[in-house]
Structure formats: structure tokens, C-alpha cells
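Table 4 source record.
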Amino acid sequence: MSETSFLSNDSHIELSLNSSHWSFGQSGSISFRTQETHALLMYAGRKPGGGNSEFLLLDVTSGQARFSADLGSGMVLV
């Protein structure tokens, strides 16, 4: 496993999931560590106004990890 540090507010990482290596039904894991009480950890979806509301979102709110998603039938918050 490799580790990445983000030392400035504009630091980011982009991941591309190639469909030939990842298919629906498979599982995976990713780890995050932050000292922030509110932070965006991961967003996958269209840009706002792009016409498609499907997204996956992982963030920290009030110090707690939160996952939300909308795959076309309404948002679910876990």
C-alpha cells in the first residue's frame, strides 16, 4: 500500500477505474486519515449542471465519515 500526503489546500489525486479491471459486484477498499472535522475525501460523478445527477461521495462531517450516493433513483446517505 502506498501513502500520499496533501500539504496544500489544492492538492488532489485522480483515479481512473478501468472497466476491464473492475466490474460491478467486486469489492475494494481505500483508507483515509485526516485531522479535519469537515473534508471532502472522494467524489465521483458529473460536474454540476452536467445533466446527470449520479454520484458517489465520501466526506467527513463533524468528524464522522459519511458516504452518500445517487445512482439514478434518489440519494442514499450511509
